TrEMBL record:
<keyword id="KW-0375">Hydrogen ion transport</keyword>
<keyword id="KW-0813">Transport</keyword>
<dbReference type="GO" id="GO:0031966">
    <property type="term" value="C:mitochondrial membrane"/>
</dbReference>
<keyword id="KW-0472">Membrane</keyword>
<keyword id="KW-0138">CF(0)</keyword>
<dbReference type="Pfam" id="PF04718">
    <property type="entry name" value="ATP-synt_G"/>
</dbReference>
<keyword id="KW-0496">Mitochondrion</keyword>
<protein>
    <submittedName>
        <fullName>Uncharacterized protein</fullName>
    </submittedName>
</protein>
<dbReference type="GO" id="GO:0015078">
    <property type="term" value="F:proton transmembrane transporter activity"/>
</dbReference>
<keyword id="KW-0406">Ion transport</keyword>
<dbReference type="InterPro" id="IPR006808">
    <property type="entry name" value="ATP_synth_F0_gsu_mt"/>
</dbReference>
<keyword id="KW-0066">ATP synthesis</keyword>
<comment type="similarity">
    <text>Belongs to the ATPase g subunit family.</text>
</comment>
<dbReference type="GO" id="GO:0045259">
    <property type="term" value="C:proton-transporting ATP synthase complex"/>
</dbReference>
<dbReference type="GO" id="GO:0015986">
    <property type="term" value="P:proton motive force-driven ATP synthesis"/>
</dbReference>
Length: 124
């Protein structure tokens, strides 16, 4: 019975949030666009959007060598830690373990989301 009342409370809060979003969503969107007007390209034509898309793509492409170098620096740090693992203290080992657990958890969540929020992979 407690679970049913919690579900009803959750549903009521969700309905209240939906009503609030319906009432204030347009005003929030307008205020957000006005606040960030410096990022809006005028006129918003298809050609200008395509140009910006290409700029973003090639900017990201140009940043790959820097990211690649940073990745190898990270790997070198891990190799250094592994070589000196005898000097590793409990705090650093704990941080490394938590980081590994977090990565694994994100992987699992990604798999569940990719399967359509099912645990077994079967859709009902």
């Amino acid at each position: 019975m407690a679970l049913a009342s919690k579900a009803a409370q959750l549903q009521a809060k969700a309905c209240e949030a939906a009503r609030f979003a319906a009432r204030h969503g347009c005003a929030y969107q307008r205020a957000l666009v006005e606040k960030n007007k410096k990022y809006v390209v005028d006129p918003p034509t298809v050609e200008r959007c395509q140009e910006l898309s290409k700029q973003l793509f090639y900017t990201r492409l140009a940043s790959l060598p820097v990211r690649y170098e940073a990745l190898w620096k990270e790997f070198d740090q891990v190799k250094h830690l592994w070589r000196n693992r005898k000097d590793l203290n409990v705090e650093r080992a704990g941080v490394a373990a938590l980081f590994g657990i977090e990565l694994y958890a994100w992987f699992c969540v990604g798999e569940i989301v990719g399967r359509g929020f099912t645990l077994t992979g079967y859709h009902v």
